[in-house]
Amino acid sequence: MTDKIEFLVENFGSYVKAVVISKIGSIASREDVEDCISDVFCELCKSYDKLPDSADELKFFVAAVAKRRAVDYFRRISHHDKNSGNISEEQFNTIPDKSGIEEQFERKMLGNALWDAVKALGEPDSAIIVYRCFYQKKAREIAKILGISTAAVHKRAQRSMKKIREILISQGYDTY
Predict the structure, then answer these.
(1) What's the helix, strand, coil split of the chain in %, to 5?
(2) Domain boundaries, given as residue ranges, for the chain
(3) With respect to CATH, is domain 1-96 assigned 1.25.40?
């Protein structure tokens, strides 16, 4: 267990601290900040066997846990201060929306899944999608860059989008 904690603290300690301070640093005592950070690492250790393998996914997971735990602390501290009359209206209005954090995390995970699906297409299909969707190049320009016909670009893009959609659906993402 101590190896798990050491790994997480060594790799994500300053990151978790920054996230927690950004969320509750303005209203929490130093002890509350330290307690929140400890709770984040306790929660991470409890779910250590379920942590994502990918470094990017792990970072987003850690961020989500840290933000969620900090929001819980913020609400608890705000509720306590509100009942004692010490919280300012400005502080009370800055309570982060938990659903916004979850939506942001889900969007980031979808973005990662989308990028992985594009990379899985192979060349030249992934290049066509990147040029078309990220650089807004026209089929004629892409054809010139890749040395293939404009018709081939259109057909490959169409097939690639279908493959990407299928990959995302197989991973549990609904497409619109």
Answers:
(1) 80, 0, 20
(2) 1-96, 97-176
(3) no
Kindly report each contact of residues 53-59 with a partner whose C-beta sits within 8 Å and lies 24 or more positions away, as own/partner.
Answer: 54/112, 56/112, 57/109, 57/112, 59/12, 59/15
CA distance 162 to 141: 22
First to last CA, the chain: 43
Q: Under CATH, which architecture does the 97-176 domain have? A: Orthogonal Bundle (1.10)
Nearest-10 crossing angle of helices 150-170, 139-146:
100
SS3 state of residue 99: helix
> Residue 12 and residue 162: Cα distance in Å, rounded?
38
pTM confidence score: 0.45
Residue 36's CB is within 10 A of a number of other CB atoms, namely 26
Over the stretch 44-77, which tens digit does the pLDDT of each residue have? Answer: 888 777 777 777 788 888 888 888 888 888 888 7
Length of the chain: 176
Q: Residue 107: is it exposed, middle or buried by C-beta count within 10 angstroms (0-12/13-18/19+)?
A: exposed
Q: Which residues of 59-70 are buried (b: 16+ CB within 10 A; e: fewer)?
A: ebbbbbbbbbbb
